Structure formats: C-alpha cells, structure tokens
Amino acid sequence: QQTIASAPPAQEAALAALSEYLPDGRDDRPLRRNRLAFTFRFENPEDLPFSANASLPPPPPLPRGYLEIVGPPGFVFERRCYVDVETRRSNIFPTPELEHMAKQEMGISAWEQNAEVLECEGDGRTAIIEIAGGILTYRTYIFTVVTTNPEVIVGENVWTLAFRNFFSRPIQSFQLWTFRNVSISPLTTNTGPSCYLGQCLGAGEGLPLPVSLVFRPYSLVDTDGELQVTLPLGFGFAPLDGEPLIEGDRQMRCIVRQYTDSNLSRPGFEWQTKDRDCLIADRGTPLDGSGTGDSRTGRIVTRFTFNEVDPSPPKTFNRGMLFRIDLWVFHPPGLSGAELWQLETLSPTKEQLDIGFAEGYALTRVFRSLRHNNEDGYNHYLNYSTPLVIQGLAPIPFFVFEFSLPETAWLEDTFVFTGPPGFMMQRAGAAPWSPGSCIELWVIQPLAAAQSRYDPGQVSICSSNVMRLPLTNFGKTVQSLAPIVIRFDLHNSEAPPPPEKNYWKIELEKGGSGALVAAGLVPSWPIVPYLAMSTTYITGDLQAAGARTTLDLFFRTVQAATELFIE
C-alpha cells in the first residue's frame, strides 16, 4: 500500500483586480501595446490564525509556481514576455511620493526578495509567468505586464489570474478608447449609377445619398479637435460647390445633433454652422468633382468664435454623450457587401484619441430611372409648364412617379413607396396596414396593368408615409427597362421634413422572402407651411375709410418663428 499526497484544494483568491493606478505605458487604444497593472492577495490576514494569536507563526511562503494570466479574446502577449513583466514596486511607482501612496494608501507590499520572475511565455491571450518561491499569501502585491490590445473586444471582457491552487474570480477589464453605440443607417442602400464619358446608366446621377452616423466618443474632443470618418473604397463624400476652401480642404454638407439621452426619436440639439466645419480631407489629388480625387475621408472639426451676444459655451464631442451626424455620400456603381467605416478622433494638436470601426451596409441594384413631376417649369408628364407646388397641405395635381427597373418584377413581388415624414400615403381615417388604407392611385403604365381587369391599387396597404403595392393585379410581369408610371392623389406635408429625410424612395421586394431586389431615391421639394385659420377683424371704434383704427389678426403657425410680416 502506498499513500500519495493529493494536490491542495483550489481556493479563491481574496483579491485580484486590474489596478486603478495607471502605470507608465498604459495605452487603452486599439492595437496599441499596453502596460497593465494587476494587484492580488491570496488570503486576508484577518482570516488567518496568526492575526488573532501573536504566538502563532504566519503561513510560510509559497513555493515556486506559475502565475497564469488569461485575457479577453483578442489580447496578445509576446511569445517571450520576460522583459514585459515588472514586479519592483519602486519601478512601478517611479517617484517617492507615488511609492509612499502605494505603501500607505493602497497597502501594497514590495515583492519578497527571493520571489523572482524566472521566465514568461505568451501564447495569444495567455501568459505564463514562472515565479521562484517566496510569495506570502496574506500580503498585497502589484505587478505590470505588457500586452497588445485587440482592434475590438469581442466576447466576455474579463481577465483571470491563477497561481498554484489559488484562482481569481473573473476580473472586469477596461473599455478600449473607442466609440460606443455606433450605428450607420443609410436612407437607401442602392448603388450609384454607372457613368462613362458623361453618360450614366441608372437613377440618381450626381445625387449624394444621406447616411446617419450615431456614436458615443470615449474621449473628449475639444475646440479645434476633429472627428474623421473614412469610407470604404468606392464611396465618397459630396463636396459643396462654390464654397471656399478651409485649411486647404473642400467643404461638405453635414448636420450634427447631440442628445442628452439615448432617445433618438426626440429632435436633439442641432449644432449651428459656426460650431463646426465639415470638410473632405485633401489626400493630394484634385477634389474638383471630376471623379479623380479621393474623397473618402470626411473631417468634422469643432469650432468656437466668441460672441458677446451669444453666451453659449463651445460645442465639443463630449465623452459619453450620444451624437448623430447626417452625411451625404456617393455610393459606388458596383454591388458590394457590408464593409467597415473607420472612425477616429483627434485632439486640437492632432494627437490620436479614439479609433474605432462601424459596420457598413451591403449595396443593392439601383433603378434604371426614377423621377417625379412636381417640378417648376416644363412638366414631362403633362407636356406643359406647371408651377412647383410647395404650400403645406396643398394637393399636387396629376402627381406621378415614372421609373424603370434593372430586372424583371414578378406578380408576387411588391413595390414599396416611402415618402418624407409628414407626407401621408395612408388615407385619412383608415387603420394602418388594412385593406383600403391608402390614398387613391392609378397605374398608367405598363398598359397590361392599366387595362387589368382588377384594379392594381386595390391590394395596396399603407401606414403613415409608406405604401406597399403588391404586383398581384398588374396582369403581367414587368420587364426590366419597361416604363412604369403611377399617379397618386397626393397632398403636401404640413411642415418641412428634415433635410436628411426629404426624399422619396421606391423599393422592389422579392415575393415570399421580402428580400430587397432594387431601390431608387429621388429628392423631394421644399415645403412652405400654410398659416391656417388666418382671419382679420376691425375692432377699433373708427371704421370709416381713411380712419386710423385697430385690427385683430388670428392665425395658427406650423413652425416656430421670430418675425411676422404684414402687407
């Protein structure tokens, strides 16, 4: 019979944490080498017998062993990491004042003289540090080790430590200096038209498409700092023609809004043009609109000009605050999958602050042609000149969409019409998405649909500014390039839509799956709200011709205003 000593039972360490102290070399930016400080204590002194009885000796030092560090997925230790480990308290806290703070306020002991680091070997996110005997379980120690941060943290963001039979609970890690709550929302995902020698195939020639970028910065971006947004290859920002260069860069259109909470359905506070410059970074090639320049990088630079009349403080990208920036982007002509957009913030001295990436979106085919006829001048549908109808709530006579598709549309497919907010495709008094819930429409082309035995518009359903029109009653499939003309009994919205949403979108969805086949976008028109219920009364005593008297004016406004003109 032989007795073999078993390994001691596993025991949870009393303390294991990432230290709040930031040593020299701490850098939480993505892909940077980062020196992290860990503190640990295996047992609490008050839990050991010698604390209550001075005649009892303290526990002996632990023998030689291996300290295992496991980081979150994506962190990487050097294969030979001996030089990346530091245990000397005087080196971790390099001034007498800091070392005094570590000893007196943080309760950190110096490592025992014989508790040397003998070796360190890294394997991805794991590092094994061999330590000679000497660690006392009831003392608090600190050490630093260098690792390389991941580009993004995926999975559980925790660390663990283990030494001999002691192990730690999961240690909450830090957030990279990167953006949070990032999302990209294009108004449409169709490609741009394919153009060659001035001839374009596809709808939307010269039309930049609005895209909303939402994010929270990690670091404060102060006045004259900037956010840089770099688009995937083939995309480009749209320059503003006729505007002067700023810092050698062309200006671009953008709208910056900030939110005090996460509710993006609220209007948000919109920055004025004096609060920021929106520019296209000049990469050394001409940005003259000829298509020869690289216009993929946009700069949103925070600005401040003192104005004694306006006491509002400078606008900055505040840490942790939610921002939404609407940008206008040219899509490439070819289909592509979702690609990353790169975000980066810079300090006023151009030091890199945050860096991050946002998931882009896949592109779908663009309509071959798309237009409407609410235009000032010659009306291509009526064949004579008509005025542009811009008054709020006014009916638009003989309003039509004309478009053609890049591929065949089948009877099980569906057209989806989306108007700017405030325009009503839903019939007044009708329940949303119910039969008969849409405004009246007439299919004029193709002829098979116009002459169909069953009304093509009968199967349409609507909610607010969206109409779904199945092709069920079109009679025949609609061939690619075939002209489609649909007339709507449309009225203007009451108030102007937000500029980033003042567009009409038409989409073709595949029957059954609902997959998007093709789409097109066309700008809407300006809306001038109507002063409703305007009436005038003479209320003065003198009412004879030429007399000076009193008038009472009554009206209802749609938008806030600061002046009223009376003629």
Can you give me a brief rundown of this structure?
The protein is mainly beta and 567 residues long. It has four helices and 39 strands.
Structural commentary:
The protein has 567 residues and is mainly beta. It is 4% helix and 35% strand. It has 4 helices and 39 strands. The strands form 9 sheets. Strands 1, 4, 6, 7, 9, 10 and 11 form a 7-stranded mixed sheet that branches. Strand 9 (158-163) and strand 10 form a beta hairpin.
Overall SS class = mainly beta
Mean pLDDT metric: 90
Percent of residues in helices: under 10%
The geometry reads as elongated
Q: Kindly state the number of beta strands.
A: 39
**Helical run tally:** 4
pLDDT < 50 stretches: 288-292
- Main β-sheet: number of strands, strand sense, barrel status? 7 strands, mixed
**Terminal residue distance:** 115 Å
- Tell me the Rg in angstroms: 34 Å
Strand % is 25-35%
